[in-house]
Automatic annotation (TrEMBL), chain C:
Annotated InterPro entries: AA_ABC_transptr_permease_3TM, ArtM/GltK/GlnP/TcyL/YhdX-like, MetI-like, MetI-like_sf
Keyword ATP-binding assigned: no
Protein's UniProt keywords contain Membrane: yes
Protein name (Swiss-Prot/TrEMBL): Amino acid ABC transporter permease
Length: 261, 456, 362
């Protein structure tokens, strides 16, 4: 009897890795308005998914259902083996494993940078403050903000704030990171510093879902591309296929518009 | 070198500015002199003296609601000195710690030192020299000064009770408005809309002339478990008569309350070092019940309960709240609570949705989201307008004159009618209210400066 | 798999339909259900007795004798006395004159509502004239041969409105000057304005009314007579000038520094800058808080009862102490509460409307 060879996860091809996010027939309505229509997505461990599409297409809403910032009405959503239900316990369990970075940074203005980053490990993971601060400092160092740890969010630039927001999410040591247009509110010269941090994170094998219009970044980092329009997935393909021969007209038009000006 | 060109005086901005200001000052002084002369002439014509000498005269009228007033003798200065010394020493301690980059909150012993300096030692001094404080009560033969002091005490009483009650009522209504329950949120909305769009004086009259007048006579009082009695003449509650061990009991309660701070701090320390929250509930209850309980067991009952009992035509014993007081407190509370509710609601809503989402996305529990993220930010928005509402209560308590509750304006009005010393009385009113206002706004400015967000 | 457009569907009923709405807004989770029960009970225990009294058991006829026997409200009182509530003891045969005043104002409001007329010069002129016209129609004038009605006869809703309007009209220019003074960089002028504003904001209106009614006559040269209504007007105007000034100061400070700099760069003098650039913008911003201020005036005029005037609030007591309608205070109260509430509530809605319009207009 020969034992099948078990490779470490990182070396396995994507389709051999475990699924960490699964959406099956997911639907969501705002009142009568149908915002997400029959969404089916599978994200495997270590996969980088970039979601694009015109504004109002439901892409933000979709990734926000993953940690229950938006409630879905029908269909299934399974994150890291836990089905998302009304159960508060499941919601808390999933939110612990999923980090999120917002367009508007959403740092807590009344807390220092260090407190912003340690608040979750202390209160959610029940980590001793000393240990939380040590971890926080390592992540702040990685995003290059460690000197500013005692300052307040209002004293930092947008790019710096967004890097702190990334560090804040990472300090919870999540399995999955969600990025909701992380660079849209930034001045051009600050976009690069944030994208660099994200690139580094991708290189380290983090599972990432990212809504963004930065197509250069997507081409470089993404394993899988998702194009959404009017609440449904129009094109769902590997990165190369998506950029080189998109199947759908709408997707082509969108790419043309965003790449050629 | 070029010579500076000469500017004609009237085109020089500095000279112009000085001229305008001088003209204004001259105008004001001329007005003041004119008013002063007119007043003297008018007073002389009406045979009214001027000056504050009349305040020593006998008042001669009855006041329906009398507070016991403290009278301070020379020895009281020792207490003030101790308090002053305590405050100065605390400030010095804080400065010294600041040099060492520490805060008072960092160590229990600093907090203990502050409590000892500002509370324990001054109170001890006060206790040792307790014969320097006497209490007096207003009688008909007391002076006008005493009458005004009694009125002032009543103003303060209504203001403090009104502030506390309206804050809590406002908080409940605000939470109700924010509730996902449609019915309760609409109910609270209309509570606010009705109350803040009707004049406060009208509401006072409503409670006094309509609601309280609907209550039964003394003999048919509404009896709530033999504890509370409600009738046309007011609300009767049991009262607590202090016994021998009362002082020790009060000290025990105070010590227990202070020790809560330390229990809470210990729990936070335990949380930060081990990750598990330290025990709070059981030690707190043990201290809160244990200490006063011990005093009770050793020294006997600290307070005797005295029930109101119907004897003849009225109630004897217990504490009676007059209908005037009840109407005033209810009226002010209800009116101001509507404004407070709006302030609290908009304060909570002013914290952006993103803050709540970010806190949730980090996995914080709902109650922690509220406590750690929403409330600290909402408080900055809530406190300044809330302080103006507290000021408004202090000022609106003067409407008591409409229902005859004897506070500062109402008693001043009586004195004004008796003595005709209108300038002096109105002056006293304004000085008193102005001091209250300035005191509260100074406190508010200090607080706002403390909680201000750090910005670039 | 080729792409197909998915048609919009309706959400499942249990989640977002009427049932879903009831479920999430009234019944679920359990404490929501308890809250629903509690609030229903509150509404029932206040609403039912009130409707019983005001409608079901009420008497809507005209005979005053019935009032002492009915257990419900006696609306005969209001039917008979409502003109008194409106104008107080204003001479009965001259009641058409306040009505004319009202018609003048309503006509102007109606004209202003028509878009073509809104910013015409003649309409502004008419608005400027209207206070005089209203005053003449209510108070009369000897020189113009209109019979004079002394202010002693003014009362009711009319007095409340006249006091509020006068306070607003006179407090406005005063408060603009105070606000400019407070933001000026001349120390004496600034200190004077700060002292005035803080002094008045620090004391209750009632003390200012007492001052205006008993102290002010002492300040004036001997022999000057001021009637009671005029004294109250002076007091209320002083009081609100301080509050208005603070609002306007907020507007002045809300303007961007660029506006001041641009005006300076164009070489304008202080008054040109203030009148042409700063004030028009600042005042526009502060219209909604000024409407709220006016609501405050409207409510606070009820205090003039304490210094002896008979405004809308005092009319309730005056009418119910007449032998014919003795003790019908509840009915009177419902009636005046209705007037105060409708006026204040509609004004507050108007201010909110303006605020929303401004927010979206930017």
């Amino acid at each position: 009897m020969s034992m099948p060879e078990v490779k470490p996860l990182e070396e396995r091809p994507l389709d051999k890795r475990p699924v960490v996010i699964e959406m099956k027939g997911l639907n969501k309505w705002y009142d009568k308005f149908h915002v997400l229509k029959d969404i089916d997505i599978q994200v495997r461990q270590g996969e980088k998914v970039v979601i694009c599409g015109p504004s109002g297409s439901g892409k933000s809403t979709m990734i926000r259902t993953i940690n229950r910032l938006e409630e879905h009405q029908t269909g299934h959503l399974i994150v890291d083996g836990t089905e998302m239900t009304d159960d508060v316990k499941n919601i808390e369990l999933i939110r612990r494993e999923v980090g999120m970075v917002f367009q508007q940074f959403n740092l807590f203005p009344h807390l220092s940078i260090l407190d912003n980053v340690t608040i979750a490990p202390i209160w959610v993971r029940k980590m001793p403050r000393k240990q939380a601060e040590e971890i926080a400092m390592t992540y702040l160092e990685r995003v290059g903000i460690s000197e500013q740890a005692r300052k307040f969010p209002g004293q930092l630039s947008g790019g710096q704030q967004q890097r702190v927001a990334i560090a804040r999410a990472l300090t919870m040591q999540p399995k999955i990171m969600l990025f909701d247009e992380p660079t849209s509110a930034l001045d051009p010269e600050m976009i690069k510093e944030v994208l660099d941090v994200m690139r580094e994170l991708a290189d380290q094998g983090m599972t990432m879902m990212c809504v963004t219009h930065e197509m250069g970044f997507a081409r470089e980092v993404a394993d899988t591309m998702v194009f959404m329009d009017q609440g449904q997935i129009v094109e769902y393909a590997g990165c190369n296929d998506f950029f080189n021969n998109p199947r759908e007209e709408r997707c082509k038009a969108f790419l043309d518009q965003i790449l050629n000006h | 070198m070029m010579e500076k060109p000469k500017v004609p005086l009237w085109r020089n901005p500095t000279v112009r500015a000085r001229f305008y200001q001088f003209a204004m000052l001259a105008g004001l002084i001329a007005l003041a002199i004119n008013v002063y002369q007119n007043t003297l002439e008018n007073l002389a014509k009406r045979g009214i003296g001027s000056g504050f000498g009349f305040l020593a005269n006998e008042a001669g009228f009855r006041i329906g609601e009398i507070s016991t007033l403290p009278v301070f003798k020379g020895g009281f200065l020792w207490f003030l000195a101790a308090l002053f010394f305590g405050l100065v020493a605390s400030k010095a301690l804080a400065n010294w710690l600041k040099q060492k980059h520490e805060k008072i909150g960092d160590k229990d012993r600093w907090i203990l030192a502050i409590i000892a300096l500002t509370v324990v030692i001054p109170l001890l001094v006060l206790y040792l020299g307790r014969d320097t404080v006497e209490t007096v009560q207003y009688t008909e033969s007391s002076s006008y000064t005493m009458a005004l002091m009694t009125g002032f005490a009543n103003t303060i009483k209504v203001t403090i009770i009104g502030c506390i009650l309206s804050t809590f009522l406002g908080l409940f209504v605000a939470l109700g408005r924010l509730s996902p329950n449609w019915l309760i949120s609409k109910l609270c909305k209309w509570y606010v809309e009705v109350n803040r769009n009707l004049p406060v004086l009208m509401q006072l009259f409503f409670w006094y002339f309509i609601v309280i007048q609907q209550l039964p006579n003394v003999r048919q009082s509404v009896n709530i478990g033999d504890w509370l009695f409600l009738n046309k003449r007011g609300l009767y509650l049991p009262s607590f008569i202090p016994q021998e061990s009362a002082l020790a009991f009060c000290i025990a309660v105070a010590v227990a309350l202070f020790s809560l701070v330390f229990i809470w701090r210990r729990s936070k320390r335990v949380l930060e070092t081990t990750g598990e929250p330290g025990k709070v509930l059981i030690p707190s209850l043990a201290v809160l019940i244990g200490l006063p309980g011990l005093v009770w067991l050793v020294g006997g009952t600290p307070f005797a309960l005295e029930m109101p009992v119907l004897k003849g035509f009225n109630f004897r014993g217990g504490t009676g709240l007059t209908p005037e007081f009840t109407a005033l407190v209810i009226g002010l509370t209800v009116y101001v609570s509507a404004f407070n509710a709006e302030i609290i609601r908009s304060g909570i809503q002013s914290v952006s949705k993103g803050q709540r989402e970010a806190a949730r996305a980090l996995g914080l529990k709902e109650r922690h989201v509220m406590r750690l993220v929403i409330l600290p930010q909402a408080m900055r928005v809530i406190m300044p307008p809330m302080t103006s509402e507290y000021l408004a209560i202090a000022k609106s308590s003067s409407l008591a004159v409409g229902v005859g509750y004897p506070e500062l304006v109402s008693i001043g009005g009586t004195i004004l009618n008796q003595s005709g010393q209108s300038v002096e009385i109105v002056g006293i009113w304004m000085a008193v209210y102005l001091s209250i206002s300035l005191l509260i706004s100074a406190g508010m400015n200090w607080y706002n400066a403390r909680i201000k967000l750090v910005e670039r | 798999m080729s792409f197909q457009v998915i048609e919009d569907r309706h959400p499942p009923v249990t989640k977002t339909g009427v049932l879903g709405w009831i479920r999430s807004n009234l019944l679920f989770p359990w404490y929501n259900f308890v809250l629903t029960l509690v609030s229903s009970w509150i509404i029932w225990s206040i609403g039912k007795p009130f409707i019983q009294w005001a409608v079901i058991d009420a008497y809507f006829g005209t005979k005053s004798e019935v009032c002492s026997t009915t257990s419900g409200a006696c609306w005969a009182f209001i039917r008979d006395m409502w003109p008194v509530f409106m104008v107080g003891v204003y001479p009965e045969d001259l009641r058409w004159r306040p009505l004319i005043g009202l018609v003048i104002v309503l006509a102007l409001v109606a004209l202003t509502c028509i878009k073509q007329f809104r910013s015409t010069r003649w309409l502004r002129f008419l608005w400027l004239l209207s206070p005089v016209a209203v005053f003449l129609s209510i108070g009369g004038s000897e020189t113009l041969g209109i019979e004079v009605v002394s202010t002693d006869y003014w009362g009711g809703l009319m007095l409340t409105l006249v006091l509020s309007a006068v306070a607003m009209i006179f407090a406005f220019p005063l408060s603009v000057l105070l606000a400019l003074g407070r933001t000026s960089n001349l120390p004496v002028i600034r200190a004077t304005c700060v002292a005035w504003i803080e002094l008045i904001r620090g004391v209750p209106l009632i003390t200012i009314l007492f001052m205006a009614s008993v102290v002010l006559p002492l300040f004036l040269p001997a022999g000057t007579e001021l009637d009671k209504v005029l004294r109250a007007m002076v007091g209320i105007t002083m009081f609100f000038s301080a509050y208005l000034a603070e609002n306007i100061r907020g507007g002045l400070q809300g303007l961007e520094a660029g506006q001041y700099e641009a005006a300076d760069a164009l070489g304008m003098s202080y008054w040109q800058k203030t009148l042409l650039i700063i004030l028009p913008q600042a005042l526009r911003i502060v219209i909604p808080p000024m409407v709220n201020n006016f609501i405050g005036i409207l409510k606070d005029t009820s205090l003039v009862g304490i210094v002896g005037l008979v405004d809308l609030l005092q009319i309730a007591f005056a009418t119910t102490s007449s032998p014919e309608w003795f003790g019908l205070l509840e009915e009177a109260y419902v009636f005046i509460a209705f007037w105060y509430w409708v006026l204040c509530y509609s004004l507050s809605r108007y201010s909110q409307h303006l605020e929303n319009k401004m927010d979206t207009g930017r």
